[in-house]
Amino acid sequence: MRRLTTMLTITMATTALQAAPPTADDWWTTMGRYQGDHILKDGESGDVIGEFSVEWGVPFQRLNYRYHSTGGDVATTMTGFCHWDETLGKVRFIEVETGPDGLVTSVGELADVDDATLTWNIKSWTEKE
Questions:
Q1: CA proximity to 79, closest of 59, 100, 51
Q2: Predicted confidence (pLDDT) at residue 4 exceeds the cutoff of 80
Q3: Which of 2, 26, 1, 8 is nearest to 107 (CA)?
Q4: Burial letters 23-38, b for 16+ CB under 10 A, else e
């Protein structure tokens, strides 16, 4: 069964390189700074809870990313990509995740950027067996 979850605005704290929404000419500088392998740790225990990897699928056109949890009861895996959407005039991402909520598909667009925050508008669909 599919259901559309409410539209979310998610704010990700980060150090932005620019103080305005990206354009077609510079979007890759905003998103490209995440390139590489990242380890996520629990804020209280310091235990590693996941690994996140970002790479250019097509340089300066499509950024691929993937995540998988480590430890915990239910494993979570996610993969997606990010690109400049000419029609929207914004950065857009599409991802698929499997985990405790079953299969979750999400699409989002970068709504705003300031000196410390990226703000995303996201729509997600879930499908549980």
A1: 51
A2: no
A3: 8
A4: eeeebbebbbebeeee
Distance (Å, whole) CA 114 – CA 22: 10
Compute how many other C-beta atoms are within 10 angstroms of the C-beta atom of residue 1: 7
Both tokens of 111, joined, read 């709504």
Q: What is the pLDDT of residues 37-86, one digit of tens each?
A: 999 998 999 999 999 999 999 999 999 999 999 877 778 999 999 999 99
User: pLDDT at position 116, please?
Assistant: 72
- Please give the pLDDT value at position 114: 77
Please give the CATH number for the structural domain made up of 2-127. Answer: 3.30.530
What does the DSSP assignment read for the chain? -EEEPPPEEEEEE---S-SS---TTTHHHHHHTT-EEEEEE-TTT--EEEEEEEEEEETTTEEEEEEEE-SSSS--EEEEEEEEETTTTEEEEEEEEEETTEEEEEEEEEEEE-SSEEEEEEEEEEE--
pLDDT tens, residue by residue, 19-47: 578 899 999 988 888 899 999 998 999 99
